[in-house]
Structure formats: structure tokens, C-alpha cells
Amino acid sequence: SSVLRLKSSCRGSCWEHNIAAFAMARTAAARFIAQRQPRKQVFLGISLALVAFRALNFVCPPKSLETGVPATAQAAQPAQLKPASPSAVTPASEEAPSSPMMMTSLTAMPLMYIAANKGVSSLTSRGGKSLRRSTAAPEDVRGEVTGVVLPVLAALAGWLAVMYGIQHALIDVPFLTGNQYEYFPIIATFIAGYAVIVLEEQTEINKAATALVLGVLIWALVGTGVDMSAANFDTAIKETLEDVSEVVFFLLGALTIVEIMDAHKGFDIITKVIQAKTQKELLVIIGVLTFLLSSVLNNLTVVIVMISLLQKLVKDEDFRMKLGGLVVVASNAGGAWTPIGDITTTMLYIGGQVTTVPLLANLFVPSVLCLVGTLGYEYIQMDDKPFERDPASAEDGEVPNGQAVVFWGGLFGMITVPVFTALTQCPAWSGMMLVLGLLGLITSLLHGPEDEKYSLKGALTRVEVPDALFFLGVLFAVGGLERVGLLKEFAVQLSSLVPYDALVAILLGFASAVVDNVPLVQASIEMFHEPMDDPLWQLVALSAGTGGSMLAVGSVAGVTLMGLEHVGFLWYMRRISPWAALGFAAGIGSYALQRMLVPQ
């Protein structure tokens, strides 16, 4: 009866009937999901899609556009098609125009369905009882397929159909004009994909899988909807894949080196030296050590080493994740004040915007205060209870052959990768692979071929490949936004709206908490034309380098923490983001005060 009333309401053309249709659709959805009737759920999904298209005023392709070319011919040539403005499309009826709220309701449907079907009760809980069981009966598995998998796949297909229709002016959206039709589906898909990653714990959808789908779909929408020649598209996607692959290969090399060091119990050498008795003492030691290491090492390397160390040292999972969040903040703060510590400062150094001595002199104190603000907040909030070590780390056991050689050799090799890159002009990933190869050679000489636990082959079987795939998907998606100029356009629009360049630089720091800071810094290089070592360039380096700590997806360090410690986005936002924001404010405020007291 609900479906019949739904169908009856859809016949109306007024806004009130559309609202009533959506209300009944939600009611019917709740009833059918509660009753666990898969066939009705599928039928309901089809009905909801029809209602959504009806509410959007979906129209057929026009017989002709202003150019006089048939719409079907234009749709057959997506590379040459330019979305028409809303006025160029002849509506199928004279009914009331659609509203942005209707579009929002449609784009939220996949997430709403998943959340309702999975029984989301809290968006702030970390983990939670799994709704799927490995010992499910065959009929339960069939129910999952028909009640969850098929509707989600149908929602994804419907999303792509709507996005394609918007790009090619088949769907009229009142608040879009001109080439906004080309870019709106790309931005909407990026936001929706990020939302699924954020809700990983609630939807139980693996974030690596979501990131891979998101990365490919962004480029699919670029290829089918953006006015770009085939040659330019081929060049753009290959260059993006090259940049992303360098990061992924660097990550795989570093993870494998750490696995070899761990197999030889190399981290026991460090854990025995750390004599912290309380959690507060360990908090200070980890923060200072990470800050110093990140000033001379790549942030990615520092985070991998420090998280691996904490996993061997700390038993309490919640406390270990807090320390992991501190590692992210400390590594970003430590890399902001040296030319080789962070990719953003390296970009400014290579581009001639900053030089070594002024950068060190002006950003060291703000970077330290950025760490102190974060560390101090957590230090005050934390109980000074005894620090509980992981029992496995306290067991001496048998020391593998070559423990010291493998650990110090691997650590020294990772530290000297920037030196190798500077001397040979080779990319950083090649230096990491060289260290991995040399370490594999050493372990082959130390152990027999039958002992794979300590070998390169055995280490590769233990590496978390989903972490690398998560990196690949996220960076590939962000690269798509960068190649079509959306991130640069965002920075330009921000600069036009904000009258002060210093405030723009600070806001770029907040923006770097959401997207990668590399394209934002590149956009600032193209926007600003201040001379070398101008305070604005130093502010850009500080803001972009430390602002990414405020969200888990805002920096390579945060994404690494999510992969290695399986930290959720919402957990990070609740437990780490407040004091990361406090540290960011302390760093920016101290730099402004420093400029007032010691003007150049």
C-alpha cells in the first residue's frame, strides 16, 4: 500500500507532492528494511530512483541545442561536447523547476541506504560489533547479496548515471551555469567518496576499496565530461600515475624494510633504551624524538618507523593510537622548518621562494610551539598512570643473527635516502628501493634460503598491501582534481575573496587538512609574486606543512596512521583534531608575534 501511495503521489507536479513522495519513500524503506524482505527492498530501490528522477525534473535529451547539432550526435562525441547552459535545454514539461535540496537528497541516497541497512547507531564509535559473520548460513549470505550488495551496486550505478547526465546537460540543475556542469559531478563524487571513507567503521566498507573506486571514477568523469582532448587526457593521467606511483613505491619499500628490521627484533634495541615509567613521560619522549627525526627524514619514513616502534612497545591500544596521532602532528611540525623535512618546504626551496638559513631561523620556534601546543594539551589531559609495556617486547628470547647489522643498516639507509637523491638526481623511491635491495642481500648472506622469515621474500608476504592501495586511490583522486585545475581555482577564488595574502596563506593550511597540500602550495607559488625569503613564503610553508595534521586525511603522515593502526577518521577527529588545531593556532600565532617583535 505504501508503494501504491508513493506511485499516486508521484503523479502530482507540485513541490508538496514531491516532498510527500520522499516522506513515504523513507517510511517504506524503514518498514521493508526492518522486515528483511530482499525482493521488496530491490523494488523499493527502483521506486526510489523513479521518485528521485521525477523530483529532479529529469528530461530526455533535447532534439536540438543552440548549435543545431542533434543531442544524440553530441552524446556520441563526449570529447567534443560542451555542456549547455540550462536555458539551452528544452524541458519536457512546464512543471515547477527542481531545487538544490532535491539534488542533495538524491546524492545522499546511497549513504542513507547503507547507513539504514547497516543499522548505524552512532557516528563517533570506534569499531563496534560487526553485522556480518564469517559463519553465516547460506540463506544469510543470499540475504546479504540481495539486501545489501545489489542495492549498493544499484545506488552506485544510479549515481554514475545522474553524474553523467549532469555533465552532458541531460539533467537540468538550476544552480549550475556554463562549465559548472562539467565540474560539479567531479566534485560531488569526490565528496561522496570521502564520506564513505570517513564512515568506514559504520558502513563496514573497506577504505582501500573505496579509495580505488573513487580514484578511477574521478578520472572516468574527467575523460567523459571535461572538454579535454584525448592527447591531453592521456598525458595528464600518465603524469598523475607517475607521481602517485613514486609515493606508492616509496611506501612499499619503507614498509618492507621495517618488516625485515622487525623480523630481526631490531626495534627491541630501541625499546630497551626507552626507560619511561609513566604515560606522560613516554608522550614527551615520542613527541620530541619524532619532531627531531622528521626534520632530517621524509615524513612518511618517520611515521612508519615510529608507529612500528609503538606497536612493539605499547600494549594499550587506545593509548598507542593517541601516541600515533601525536606522531602525525610532530612529524608535520618537524618537517616544516627545514628544506628537506617536508615536501612543501622542499617545493618552495627548489622554486627559489625560500633559502635555508632564513627558513630555519624564522620557522624553528613556531614549529616547536606547534608541537608544544599539541603536546601540552594532551599532557594536561592525560592521567599520570604507569606505562604498561607490551609483554612481547619484554621477552628477550633468541636474538636473530645479524640483529644490529640489519636494524642500524636499514635505519641508516632510510636516513641517507635524501642524500642519495641530492647527489644522484634520482627520485626518492629509487633510493628506498636501493636500501631494500641491499638489506635483502645482507639477509640472504646471514640466513639460509629455507629460512624465509628473515628474508626479503618473507617480509613482502607480511606487508599490508591495502595500505599502499589506499594511498594509490586517494592520491589518484586528488591528482584528478589537480589536473583539471579545480584545486588551483579554489586557491584563486579564495585569494579573490580574502583581501589579505597572509590570511589566504593561513586558510590554505585549513584547506590542506582536507586535500593534499602539494597542489595548494603549487597554486600559491603561481598566485603570489613576492621576492625570495619574503615572510609570506615562510607562512605558506608553516601553514601548509602543519595544517594537514588537523584531519587524518590531510597529510601523508595521517593517511599512513590510518593504514598502519586502522585508525578511523571520526576517531581521529574526536581525539586528535582538537589539540592538533590548538598546535596549529599556537604555531601561526607565534610566527605572527615573532614578525611583530623582530621585523625583517
Question: Would you write up a description of this structure?
Answer:
The protein has 600 residues and is mainly α. The chain is 70% helix and 0% strand. It has 29 helices and no strands. It has helices at 2-10, 15-35, 38-55, 71-75, 100-118, 138-167, 180-198, 200-203, 207-225, 230-263, 268-271, 279-294, 299-313, 317-335, 343-350, 356-381, 391-394, 403-415, 417-424, 428-446, 456-462, 465-483, 486-497, 501-511, 517-527, 535-547, 556-565, 569-575, 577-597. Helix 1 (2-10) packs antiparallel against helix 2 (15-35). The longest helix is centred in the middle third of the chain and has 34 residues, at 230-263.
Helical segment count: 29
Helix content range? over 70%
Number of strands: 0
Mean pLDDT: 75
Structural class: mainly alpha
Low-confidence stretches: 1-17, 36-43, 48-135
Biggest sheet, in brief?
none
% residues in beta strands: under 5%
Secondary-structure element string: HHHHHHHHHHHHHHHHHHHHHHHHHHHHH
Radius of gyration: 27 Å
- How would the global form be characterised? globular
Cα(first) to Cα(last) distance is 76 Å
